[in-house]
Predict the 3D structure of the following.
Amino acid sequence: MAKIINVIKGTKDILPQDVNMWQMMEKNALEVFSRYGYKEIRTPIFEATELFARGVGDTTDIVNKEMYTFEKSDRSLTLRPENTAGVVRSFIENGMARLSAPVKLWYKGPMFRYERPQAGRQRQFHQVGCEMFGIKQPAADAEVILMAVNYLKSLGLNDLEVEINSLGCPTCREEYKNKIKEVLKPEFDNLCEDCQNRYEKNPLRLLDCKVDSCKEIFEKPEIKAVIQSDFICEECAEHYKELKSYLDKLNVKYVENKLLVRGLDYYNRTVFEIKSNNLGSQNAVCGGGRYDSLVRNLGGDDVPAVGWAMGMERLYSLLEKQTPEKLDAFIVSNSTAEAFSLAEELRTQGLNIEFDLSNKKFTKQLEKAGKVSDLALILGEDEIVVGKVSVKNLLTSEQISVDRCNVFEYIKGV
């Protein structure tokens, strides 16, 4: 016997009994996002490695540790670890900056990161997300946050918490970075290895550390005072104030979290996460923010932008599992040709119908019918001769005879 080849670690099959939940998440995304004027975009699964190095940032864990990169024809290519950079590349390449602002795009699909697999996090995972281009005002930030909340509510998820913060602009943020480095300098040797590496390259990322010993350091009064200080400039503060005003007006409940920085280099001003208490320590369902310099950094015009992404595996883990949909009816017959003919008649009218292709005994067919449908269409020799179909309700065991030409209307009326 040949050796069985198993699924690669960090990847999972989405099996037929689970697909209906995934289709529901995708269907709700289309419905909710369309109401806000978003159009779906589908970008390639792999892009030039440089796109992510420049877009995501070469100081991030994603670029340094987690990308699936390969060489082909002397060119470095990477399976997309996230989709904002790809959407921005498409926005620039296809001249979307010439369109009337705002340009609103949404996407869904697989992403790839080499990291330790855990609950709700795989090496091939799926995201649904949105990007809005062309609006610098905080009303855009408020709309994308509200849309995320309403999408989650459409899935039946209400026990969620929105966290927001402002990272300021590059000017005011630089001074803040220097203050963080200064106050943490005496603790440098006590920081974890990742934080020591981030100290010079990207000190804001220290605040995102999940290591308990680092968290304890950040709670020290003199350090916490710097972290919690209002460092942002007047213009950034006004933007943040207006965002909170919009969220209050829209009844979006939120908390402010000064430690919220997100893991990507391109964010400025608004950053936010939506969290669930049902996910343990890795509890973020949605994350996003504003990235006003990314289009310019990737070679486009100076176009402001804001967006977010959600991990669909995490969403799936929070949803109440549904019973798979049953067939409209199952045909029980020992005449494969007649069963095939009736099945196609009903399928062309929009019904979900199956019959036994292997022509098992009637009792076996009825047993199968009871597992996949509430109705059995019995097509025996007597029924075939007189042009009838015996319809059996498998829940009540009631059975009636129906003219073959009226079977569709009967099933729709049940």
